[in-house]
Write a structure and sequence with these properties.
Structural class: mainly alpha
Radius of gyration: 20 Å
Helix content: over 70%
Shape: flat
Strand content: under 5%
Order of helices and strands: HHHH
Number of helices: 4
Number of strands: 0
Largest sheet: none
Amino acid sequence: MTRSVWAYIFTMAIVSYLLRVLPITLIRKQITNPFIKSLLFYLPYVTLSVMTVPSIFFVSENVICGVGALVISCLVAYKTSNLFMTAVTASVVVFLLSLI
């Protein structure tokens, strides 16, 4: 690897480390602000959604496969509340729609 690649890796390691260590060292008391508490509560769900939703639409060459899988999997998730069944159903729907 070139020297600049190692610099990028080192910089990302430092940034990742600081993002984990600074909140622990700087925030010593209980967070009481309701806005900050709600922000910290919903942040993992928002991050997961932002990473997942674009991937759903471009799971195959045809966007209709992703949209169909999204609609069907949302219905299955609402009816069963079973994550495994939802994932399997979405995969089967994408496979079947890509065959059409």
